[in-house]
Amino acid sequence: MTFPGFPEETTNQIRIPEQFFRHVLPGIDKLDEMKVTLYVFWRLERMEGVFHYLHLGDLLQDTQFINSMGKDSDKARKAIEAGLRRAVRRGTLLQAGVEGQDKIICLNSAKGRAAVEAIKRGEWQASPASYPPIETYLEHPNIFLLYEANIGPLTPMIADALRDAEKTYQANWIEDAFRIAVERNKRNWHYIEAILHRWQEGGRDDRKDQSDRRDTEEARRRYAQWDK
Question: pLDDT class for 207, splitting at 50, 70, 90?
Fold first, then answer.
């Protein structure tokens, strides 16, 4: 199947340090290392909080990723583990943890190195709980389509605001904000934008949102101040 191409309005950019292309990419000669490295970059970029890390188990929860790494689950796991070992030996990724527990996987960055040293000194222990799988290959509706389908025709001013929002917020956040506005019968952009701004300023637990997208009573109370 031929890739149809990237959309003109690209969303959810993934930041990869320039040093990767200058110093790491030229030395990678195994596909499993390349896939694992890029996948870890992508997963860590989607996280919130001060420190971002994964466990091997997190990589093994993504069915689409596993299928891309081998013909069966056993071969895929071996390919992922081999790719991870190569990335760690190269110094792109770091692993650390106490014996008997799933080691953390993080970037070889200042924060990553500090975390590894803290683990070695016994000053910090990462949570053994794995992150739930995220929807790697889910196609999110374009923000303009969401607006027209749930609110009404676009105007030039609204189109500019939507374009800015698409660059600022995650696609799943935008989709959820539209859904909440529709369920509360608040079909206007200012209400949706207020939800997004509140999530950005106050934080949002993506792990809970991805495993349970229902609009709970607690969430309804949280947005009550916008109910005008």
Answer: very low
Nearest to 53 by CA among 4, 104, 6, 129: 104
**Could you read off the pLDDT of 108-158 as tens digits, one per residue?**
999 899 988 988 888 877 765 545 445 444 455 678 888 888 898 888 889
Q: Are 147 and 189 in contact (CB under 8 A)?
A: yes
Which element (helix H / strand E) includes 182? helix 171-183
Write the burial class of residue 42 (CB in 10 Å: 0-12 exposed, 13-18 middle, 19+ buried).
Answer: middle
Strand order from edge to edge, sheet including 93-96: 54-55, 104-107, 93-96
Domain extent, residue 186, equals 143-226
pLDDT band for position 220 (50/70/90)? Answer: very low
Inside any domain, residue 98: yes
Are residues 205 and 154 part of one domain?
Answer: yes
Q: Is 170 helix (H, G, I), strand (E, B) or coil?
A: coil
| Reported pTM | 0.58
Residue 14 tokens, joined: 């993934």
- Give the CATH number, domain containing residue 38: 1.10.10.10
Number of compact structural domains in the chain = 2
